[in-house]
Amino acid sequence: MSIETSASTNGFSPRLSSRREMLLQCGGGFGSLALAGLLQDTASAGPSSEAPSPLASKLVHHPAKAKSVIFLFMDGGPSHLDTFDPKPDLDKLAGKPIPESFGRVLTAMGEFDSPIMPTQRKWAQHGEGGLWISDWLPHTAKMADELAVIRSCWTNGINHSGGICQMNTGSQFAGRPSLGSWVTYGMGTENENLPAFVVMQEGKGRVINGARNWGAGFMPAIYQGTTMQRTGSPFTNLDRPKHVAGSQQRAALDFLSDLNQAHAAERSDNSELEARIRSFELAYQMQSHAPDAVDLSQETEQTRSLYGLDQKETADYGRQLLMARRLVERGVRFVQCYHGAGSKWDAHSKIESNHTRMCRGMDLPVAGLIQDLKQRGLLDQTLIVWGGEFGRTPMSEKGDGRDHNPTGFSMWMAGGGVQGGQAYGTTDNLGLHAVEDRLHVHDIHSTILHLMGIDHRKLIYLHKGRPERIDQNEGRAYTKIVKPT
């Protein structure tokens, strides 16, 4: 069905338009209205002939503790019971079924009545706060006073696909913006010559769900993450062809931009077009700025050694984290560094050999990142988040492994205004369920935004007329973790 206006002006008769086209044309600006809502309390910078960049730095709702986030994602689910949450009862009940008080426990892989498996770790208290950390993480333990360990995390995802998707987007299902997208939408970036949101994957594997984990969902595509290459040039097509002069490239891009803008003007509902247009200009700017940002040869041997670049087992992740530090000090807002891409932390069997290997590859670079940021005066303004999509069960799987445990696990934060040197929340005596100060993924996301000066209740994006928030109206900021001013 179509509608037609009866009036005409100067001989011009409006074309017929379907209801669908009318809704698209009217709804195409809803995202801009949401963005304008973020800025309604800010003073105008004056008239401009061009629309402001959607990635321009924005004012926040309250004083920010952190300016950037580095999310260290342990892909596959590390065992909290063998790293940050000691449970003496695992040894006392080793080989026995889980107590009847827990009810009939069915694991993610469908096992039940599996016996309790003790930990083989040695535990010690570290730092002035006496934080308990296992011997799998000797380097991280040296940074204990910077760590705020949250022992009471929980999620809904029981498998890797749903768990990783929810930890990144708040939902187990595809279609919602990632945390990095919400952060860049809400805060913009301080350096538009580099991507605002960067993603790196360590190892040869690929993270389950791929780009869904750092996608923009229903937001404009410009807020999605930019992946860095693992070998060669960090970004694809970064180098200008040798036979093309800078002036030639600039002229070609300007001409292409004019054509694209004319094309996009008739398709205002398609955010992919605007994102692609801006990506061309960003790519051009990156040719001048990105090579310096990712040039690790500028770092001293001492710094490279701090991140483990001189050791085979730590070189890959150390390279990521050193790159992350160079990016955030240049104004990049959100950097996500996957360790063990392809669920390498998944330890359904042989957890001893698996976690020994995985911890060894991650421990030194992570401690090096904290130490490096601190000595450069960047730790207070950079929030580091460490964790996976879930934890592991106290019961054994296949005799020497642990199954997925979404009902209770540990994550930690450091820098960015958090009070380190202590643990927050608890799990039960076996580490199966979070029981005190339980923090769902929605709460974790809300807390991260709070530390960045954003009220998660006010960060809204209108999608199809519906106000959307990262926490889907279920989260709360965990302010106990915030360092007092």
Describe the protein in words:
This is Sulfatase. InterPro entries: Alkaline_phosphatase_core_sf, DUF1501, TAT_signal. It comes from Rhodopirellula bahusiensis. Pfam families: DUF1501 (PF07394). By secondary structure, the chain is of the alpha/beta class. It has one domain: Alkaline Phosphatase, subunit A. It has twelve helices and 19 strands. Strands 3, 6, 7, 8, 9, 10, 13, 14 and 17 form a nine-stranded mixed β-sheet that branches. The protein has a two-stranded antiparallel ribbon with strand order 1-2. Strands 4-5 form a two-stranded antiparallel ribbon. A hairpin with a 2-residue loop joins β18 (461-463) and β19. α10 (312-328) packs parallel to α11 (351-375). The longest helix has 25 residues, at 351-375. The radius of gyration is 24 Å and the shape is globular. The termini are far apart. The model is unreliable at 1-17 and 19-49 (pLDDT under 50).
